[in-house]
Amino acid sequence: MPTSPLTLSRWLTLSGYFGLMIGLYAWHLLINLTEAHLISIIILTQLGPLMLPLRGLLNGKTYTHAWSIYLAIFYFVLGIWYAGANETLMFGLYVTAFSLLFFTGCVLYTRLSSRSQKENSAD
């Protein structure tokens, strides 16, 4: 049973998205225990923006995938920032890799979905 490129790009997006979410959560709350007085600020600023596109990504909305590209760029910059220090190099590479996965999936899904919608409207 062949899988369509649209479905593959959606899975690519979701795996990058949930990889970022799980990785950030695990890093700050389980692996590198953040100080108690900073945890709420860090969780709010790093996991908070990931909550915004959740519903649209799960429902496969093209518009949500399109503006989530900008969110993926933010997490790419965050990953590069973490990779700049020797103590957090591996975590930075992890965030960078999953943000690239998220970015690539969003770009592909947006292109393929809009192309599919144009073909369906032409019929």
Task: Explain how this protein is built.
Helix content is 85%, strand content 0%. The chain is mainly alpha-helical and 123 residues long. The protein is elongated. The two termini are 26 Å apart.
Quick tags:
6 helices, 0% strand, mainly alpha, 123 residues, 85% helix
Concise structural overview:
By secondary structure, the protein is mostly helical. Helix content is 85%, strand content 0%.
Helix- and strand-based class?
Answer: mainly alpha
The overall strand count is 0
How far from one another are the termini?
A: 26 Å
Our Rg estimate from Cα atoms comes to: 16 Å
Question: Which outline best applies?
Answer: elongated
Q: Unreliable segments (pLDDT under 50, ≥5 consecutive)?
A: none
Instruction: Classify the beta-strand content into a percent band.
Output: under 5%
Instruction: Return the string of H and E elements.
Output: HHHHHH
Q: Please bin the fraction of helical residues.
A: over 70%
User: What's the rounded overall pLDDT mean?
Assistant: 91
Tally the structural domains. Answer: 1
Q: With helices defined by DSSP (H or I, 4 residues minimum), what is the helix count?
A: 6
Quaternary organisation of the protein chains: single chain
Summarize the main sheet: none
